[in-house]
Amino acid sequence: MVFASLIFICFFLPLNLILYYAYDNITYRNILLTAFSLVFYAWGEPIWVLLLLFTAALDYGNALLIERFRDTRLATLGIWFSVTANLGLLMSFKYSGFIVENFNFLFGTTMHVPSIALPIGISFYTFQTISYVIDVYRGEAVAQRKFLNFLMFVSMYQQLVAGPIVRYVDIMNEVEQRDHNLKLIWLGIQRFTIGLFKKVCIANVAAEFVARYLDGDLSQLSVGEAWFGILMFSVQIYFDFSGYSDMAIGLGKMFGFHFLENFNYPYISRSATEFWRRWHMSLGSFFRDYVYIPLGGKARRPYFNLMVVWFLTGLWHGASWNFILWGLYFGCLILIERLFLFKILDNIPRIFGHLYLLFMAILGWALFYFVDLHRLMHFFGILFGQAGAQAWNYELTIALQENVFWLIIALILCLPIYPWAERKAKELVHRFSVIWLMATAFQIILFVMSITMLVGKTYNPFIYYRF
Amino acid sequence: MFDTTLAKNVMRVQIGLFVLVPAIWGTLFFIMPHAKESEYEKRPLCPAPAFSWDALLDNYTDSLDLYFSDNFPFREDFVKMAFQFNRWKGWHSDEMTFYATTSPVEGQLNTDSLMMDSMARAEQIIEAEGKAESSHGVMIYKGMAIQIFGGSEKLSNQYVNMVNTYEERFRGKAKVHVMITPTHQEYYLPNEYRHSSERKIINYIYENVTKNVTTSDVCGYLQAHRNEYIFFNTDHHWTGRGAYYAYVAFCKANKMEPVPIEKMEQHFIPGYLGSLYRLTLDPTVKERIDSVEYLIPPTQNKMYILSGANYSRRSPTPLFVKFAKGGNSYGVFLGGDLPLLCVDTDVKNGRKAVLIKNSYGNAFAPYLISHFEQVYIVDYRYFKGNLVNLVNQFGITDVIIMSNSFSSNTSTHTSYILNLLNGRGGTTTTTTPATGSTPTNTPTNTPNGNTPSNTPTTPNKQPNPTNPPSNPPSNPSAPSNPPAPTSPTGQ
């Protein structure tokens, strides 16, 4: 199931909320959430829900083992077992094809390339459980005694299929005891509505352009269309993913959970370093805390560590060389920034930093988008006028004309307008209580618009969903 | 700020609305009756999916998602509102609107799948005429829906080779004619919105086929009558009248006297909203709703569907299916796209023709009956037999290849025509394809659809995590290269 679907909004969520608040008992509520989450997951993956249960059981057991036998060899065994098992599962499901292909290529063998369907969310929940076991090992978290609670943490539909990667330490105090109040629920609804709007009204619209310009016959594309296409993908992936994170955070609030933010207006960054502190923050911090720092961080072999992290970040996004290249691309940028670019950027007007980042990020998305390296090369050729494509065509003019208002709104919303509006509202609300009504009316309009657009479409893709 | 009574009340109301209104809608879904068809989108709506344990492990939940959203209470109103919202995204000129067609659905001409929305199905129907290579979107210009032609000399070369192969194969036995008709763009779309010129490409083909092949100046004859109702506003086909002028062109090229239009019986089927409306759902196009004019030539005739070994089985069928209506009105011509038809006429001149066509030829075929003893009509997309055997068996004297500009620049179509020469032997299949042109369009009731791209969760099943949802169409390569005696100058 997906959040941005009519079945979720009209059946699943209302039912869940009504049942949840019907009876004030934490165990009942946790069981309810877990049950709903398993149904949510099984809706999309009727078979692989078992894998989810298996992973949860495995690490529930491992963590208890580690804690019970802390500082002995058994604990070390536990952690290695857990990490290996989780990564092993991830590798088999996600990377086996990629590995075999490359092995064949390097060694000239002709092994059969497996093609396994990827269970939804496996990249997210395996990282979640790994972080839990490591945190228990490090003593930063107390192992969860009740399997129900642990299973709830792993399978919670609010964050299961597409993040944010919620760490156990972030919600461990909320497992057995949550504050439920009007304000929190309301904030949750507000956040969910914003996320839904981002996804349905902006990301899905951008996706149509992406399909039109980037999926078809590249030899027919004009240079303008190529740039517009990749700009649209940059819009799509941001609003898609951050919208989904918004919905996740909003849903968490509705049930008393406080998840950490995952996006902080990444497109206002002035460097790649800053960009990755604002984009998919839960992933960045995962790699920082569980790979970069254990490897030595800034202290020992910093550049090597950096490239390892970025290699892995790219690889996490997909079992294909273009993703790895994308990760390394950012690794190199960050390296360059650290070596000398920051000194330059600090001494020139800020606007250049913005332009530099936007340009690099958009090109990076081209790397990310084209899995086929031939198409990728062809596309880059078009972008830089090397492929004999015409510069502009009238279809593009018409497309821009017919979408100009939407485009302006989409670009403006990349800026932190919402926090600014929120601050202003908070200042003025004491004097103008009508602001409450305006805010509410606004939410309702966004919600109705999103539903309308959902009804019109039976197809609703989500990029990070395939992880 | 959250502590004031106003705040608390507002929050309570909003929470209440958020939970209850969708829940009410969900309940309405169970209470309200479900329509079978969307009036606005002109397509059938998904019925309740059949449950089975197998289906549960497969795509039952996807079908449930679709079932609910297709029968969402007050869906029509929402869809209309969604269309409005889409128009508010930018500025639209009064005169024209452009619809870029997204990558078309590849492969089957199966329109039975309920999973497809009207656009995908309409695209498939249009795709049956000429694929993405040669089509560059649809422009609504002054209320007429016009497909934009993207052909080229390079794309035409394969067609030229094919025609020349035909000439060589039938030399001494039958005369080969080629007719390529332009479409709306040639007459109704200003130059600045065109990609390529249909007239130029057609002339290129005509100039490069061997001299023995007769060519007909359809372009010129339609041009003279472009102010008449020769093309539909809402459909990619031409009208019966447009096909008539092509018939005149054919007669002039062959030194035959065309039957004057006044001698034909004129009929109308009103209320036709065609493929290009269903593809774009554009309201201006809807206003220019078409009527299908068909002209009945004065020649006595009997038409048969041919099937069986050596085409011995003959099933009578009307030349014009007069009860065709609604979205299938174009099916009045020949009853739709059938693999092999034969018309016996009372003409006595020793000439027999075979017309090789796609659905454009349906409107044209009837006019031939005034000039041949027998007219065989082959739809190259569905005929599985061997054309050479057919010509030999029935003593056919004239082989007429008819295409429109789009299909002449589409390699799959050219390959189809070419492969008729090497077909599988004397039998024809009797499968009637379910294209939009057939009068009987019965969708099956099991919604286990075959188009994965329309369901929300199917992208998950792909092993490659970030494959863009719609797969880019691979460039179809010509399956067989005929030994071309004269290759025209390649690009």
Number of strands of chain B: 15
Unreliable residue runs of chain B? 102-119, 425-491
Q: Helix tally of chain B?
A: 16
H/E element order of chain A: HHHHHHHHHHHHHHHHHHH
The percentage of residues in β strands of chain B lies in 15-25%
Radius of gyration of chain B: 25 Å
How many helical stretches of chain A? 19
Q: Percent range for helical residues of chain A? A: over 70%
Quote the distance from N terminus to C terminus of chain B.
72 Å
Give the overall average pLDDT of chain A. Answer: 90
- Helix/strand/pairing category of chain B: alpha/beta
Looking at this protein, list some descriptive labels.
heterodimer, A: 467 residues, mainly alpha, 71% helix, disordered C terminus, B: 491 residues, alpha/beta, 8-stranded mixed beta sheet, 15 strands, elongated
Structure description:
The complex is a heterodimer of chains A (467) and B (491). Chain A has helices at residues 6-22, 26-44, 49-68, 73-107, 122-137, 147-155, 168-171, 182-214, 223-254, 272-278, 281-295, 302-317, 321-346, 350-369, 373-383, 394-402, 404-412, 417-428, 434-456. With 467 residues, chain A is mainly alpha-helical. The radius of gyration of chain A is 23 Å and the shape is globular. With 491 residues, chain B is α/β, with parallel strands linked by helices. Chain B is elongated. In chain B, 50% of the residues are buried. The chains are: A mainly alpha (467), B alpha/beta (491). Chains A and B meet through helix 1, helix 8, helix 16, helix 17 and helix 19 of A and helix 1, helix 3, helix 4 and strand 3 of B.
